[in-house]
Design a protein that fits this description.
Length: 283
Amino acid sequence: MSATTGHELAVGSRTSALALRQTELAVAAIAAAHPGLTCRVVTFSTRGDRDLDRPLPAIGGKGVFTAELEGALRSGAIALAVHSLKDLPTEAAAGLVVGAVLERAEAGDALISRTGRPLADLPPNPAIGTSSTRRAAQILALRPDARILDLRGNVETRVRKAQAPDGPYDAVVLAAAGLVRLGLAAAITERLDPARLLPAPGQGAIALQCRAGGETSSLLAAVNHAGTWAAVRAERAFLAGLGGGCTAPVAAFARAAGRGDGGEGGEGDTLELLGLVASPDGR
């Protein structure tokens, strides 16, 4: 069956619960914009999903969650792919474009601690789980006594590891948007303000990727959220300009000037961009 059959669109997704939930949101947005169009979800297991024993930088960093989906787009097996935008490399993939981004959820990170204590109140030398060099550097800037432990697995697995009474972690740090989308907001101990711990470029945004210049690209224009698009383009331009990626502690957050929350931003005429380049030790 082709990627587009009559009024049906083949939509590619990773197999994790979060990826499938984000794909549900994308399909709902497309259905609302194009009532006569139905979507068929096709799932893929990516290298990043399969190789959970090594840190992300060791297996290739950005691209390990997207390569299989991009290959299916190029072959015509699917018409569009749904990604967490922060997983998409900033380098343009040959023949492919981001056709739309959905309205952004909260962009910031969240801390889940075993004892229910916020970051500042964790005991001395706390063990904090994250696989992100960006998070690790900023946590060390806030808590120089912290011990950073690698943390892999899907969102539900990482929440279980954070809450395990006999586990190695005093706390873990995850994207707040993923927890909210999976109905796990009650597990959050502390939301970390983006102005205090800057998120990854594009964090909290869902990207719909398609082949350049095709019919799908025209269809997706109707679901693109202009404010989110303006903000994430600025963040990704910052990252691309630095040549940063998963191995570099680089962060960026754009919002409409004057906004103080962690929302999608970008609704006014002026954007404020906060950017960070850090040493891995947070100094």
